[in-house]
Amino acid sequence: MKVEALINILGADYFAGVPDSQLKALCNYLMNRYGIDPGHHVIAANEGNATALAAGYHLATGKTAVVYMQNSGEGNIINPVASLLDERVYGIPVIFVIGWRGEPGVHDEPQHIYQGMVTTKLLEDMGIEHFVVGQETTADEVAAAMADFEKVLSEGRSVAFVIRKGALSYDEKVIYQNDYQMTREEIIRHITAVTGEDPIVSTTGKASRELFEIREQAGQDHSRDFLTVGSMGHASSIALGIAAQKPDRRIWCIDGDGAALMHMGAMALIGSSGMDNLVHIVINNGAHETVGGMPTVAGGLDVTAVATACGYKHVYSAKDYDRLDDMLEEIKSKRELAFLEIKCGIGAREDLGRPTTTPKENKEAFMAGLSPSVK
Hints:
It is a single chain. By secondary structure, this protein is an alpha/beta fold. The chain contains 14 helices and 14 strands. Strand 3, helix 4 and strand 4 form a beta-alpha-beta unit. Helix 1 runs parallel beside helix 6, helix 3 (about 45-60) runs parallel beside helix 4 (about 75-85) and helix 7 packs parallel to helix 13. The longest helix has 16 residues, at about 110-125.
């Protein structure tokens, strides 16, 4: 169905969420209609953040907001749903629009399989009534479901529309770009040229896919890399956990701006740790590129100032390859906690592949490379 029809049926004028590739039609529509507007549309740091924004909107207006997200974000909303929205607490209604990755019977990537299996069950466990929208679902059927939901919402309870692959369409295009010239794949190539045998933890999305292909092109194995294919926002904490147990190894984390924002408290934890064998790199293109390119607030944020305030010993920034190489060499020459922000353009190769190994195979190879005695 056309996304415009869904918006009209929902009847909302406030939207907060985290972009999802299966909701690209909705995301592009919201960007064309509202852009980033605190009064109508906010791209949140994480899904729990979006839910709290929706609660604030309801408290201020008495109206119901829409929170959109990929189903992987259900875990981030459990706390605010249970302890804030629930009718036995404040009774604040929210309309959730959830992209269904990993739907049973539909091919998807490994990190989405289990989440896809439990998507509707989690909603049931949270007491959220839901309606599934597929390619054959008509606007009349969605409108009928929304009419049934009105009573639920009036009782201070939340509802959800679960969106199957290809269920929403939008004819207009949105082009996301910035003024930076470096590409993420080439940046990662420069990083791997310096890291040598050091372990790397890479973040969710295209960064890990590019790292995998760079190793393949170089004829290298993948025992040095832990590819965080899911669990967005947690790569830096994984790296910290490894660094604390392997003080004799320098650990590099290749992070993204959207991921770093999602759980920014990790930066405070890392900074306070004083872990002198950890290097935290944030490739900042100011976009949720893997799921379509919608902007993050990091494009206008002084990320290095945040890192400095969090306690990183050395903080660097680069926006061209010469400075990037200089900064990487300087970081390598020191043995202290370091943070490097790299300004990056938006875009990736159209033929960019995906890892040909499974997550478990990646884990086993990485653990063997990190600690050869561990089986």
